[in-house]
Input
Amino acid sequence: MGITDLRMASNATLFLEAANATVNLTHSDASEEPDTSMGWFQWITEGLLIFIVGVVGLFGNCVSIYTFSKQRVHRIFHNLLLVLAIFDIVSIDFSFKTSLLLLLSIVCL
Output
């Protein structure tokens, strides 16, 4: 056996030992039960409350858009509030999507 054969044999042995360690680590983690109490608290605060506040905010922004778009006198400040309401609706949309993803991740546990 030459030096290259010994190196290949030692590399193969190290690879197999690392693979066995990874499998053992995976099996030991899989047997533990995950703590879902923090997950439910996170879902209630970040999922449910964001949804409720978002619905109220969405309604308020729609009323603001309707009010500011129907005014006879369009001042710069009113236009700024109109644009703010539009961007706030976009932000609420992303919050709804985040809440939905959080809900699905907690339910799937």
Observations:
- Residues 13 and 19 are 10 Å apart (CA to CA).
- The helical segments are 3-30, 37-69, 76-107.
- Confidence is low (pLDDT under 50) at residues 3-9, 22-28.
- The chain is about 85% helix and 0% strand.
